[in-house]
Amino acid sequence: MQTAPRQRRHRDQSQRHLVDATIAAIYKHGFHDATTQRIAEEAKLSAGNIHYHFGSKEELFAAAMRQLMSDISDTLVYQLGKADTPLARAHAIIRANLSEPLYTHRNCFVWLQFWSETARSEELARLERINALRFRRNLLDALVKLLPREEAERIVQELVAMVDGLWLRKAQKDQAVTPDAACAMVFSYLERRLDSAAGQGG
């Protein structure tokens, strides 16, 4: 009776190993040069394992993008667990996208590679839309408790652009902005916008 669960665990472990190898290969070689052979070499497995577990390279790349999204989601759940006010929730959402171990040169570079392919891959574009919508919705849910909805939506749009820009800079240069500096930068901007909105409301 234990055979099936063991087989599932082994399959899940093998798939995660291949996903990790895919991310490593994209980081080393770029999206288009991360060939099936290079991914297999990174995983120290035969190329046949990729087709056995995922069917195609495209499915494997989508699984790798989903893994990065899952890492962000897991970090967000952890950060939100410590937040007890709307502002603290907004900070937690921002921190989940800009703190270690997520906000690294490797992750930002690989995510940028996926971004660049969304115009050509319907599945990658779908995943990117899900990730972007989740980020915006979570921020908006926090900020509408502090501001009128229209103002909250404007600030969310600005914050998303800031975080996207910080990921882009990190992808280009490892030491461009540290995680702490990135968080402080966005937090400071949010504080100024909230203060300005409060002043206009007064």
Give a written overview of the molecule:
The chain has 202 residues and is an all-alpha fold. It folds into two domains: 55 residues, Arc Repressor Mutant, subunit A (Orthogonal Bundle), CATH 1.10.10; 137 residues, Tetracycline Repressor, domain 2 (Orthogonal Bundle). It has nine helices and no strands. Helix 1 packs across helix 4, helix 6 crosses helix 8 and helix 7 crosses helix 8.
Give the helix/strand layout.
Elements: H1 3-29, H2 36-43, H3 47-54, H4 57-80, H5 86-98, H6 105-117, H7 122-143, H8 149-172, H9 179-201
Helix pairs in contact: 1-2, 1-4, 1-6, 2-3, 4-5, 4-7, 5-7, 5-9, 6-8, 7-8, 8-9
Please tag this protein with its features.
Tetracycline Repressor, domain 2, 2 domains, Arc Repressor Mutant, subunit A, about 200 residues, 9 helices
CATH level-1 class of the largest domain: Mainly Alpha
Instruction: State the end-to-end distance.
Output: 68 Å
The CATH superfamily of the largest domain appears as: Tetracycline Repressor, domain 2
User: Using only CA atoms, what is the Rg?
Assistant: 19 Å
Oligomer: single chain
| Percentage of residues in strands | under 5%
Q: Compute the number of helices.
A: 9
Percent range of helical residues: over 70%
In the CATH hierarchy, the architecture of the largest domain is Orthogonal Bundle
Order of helices and strands: HHHHHHHHH
CATH topology of the largest domain: Tetracycline Repressor, domain 2
Which word captures the global form? elongated
Count up the domains. 2
Report the mean per-residue pLDDT as an integer. Answer: 92
Structural class: mainly alpha
> Uncertain regions: pLDDT < 50 for 5+ in a row?
none
Tally of strands: 0
Largest sheet: none
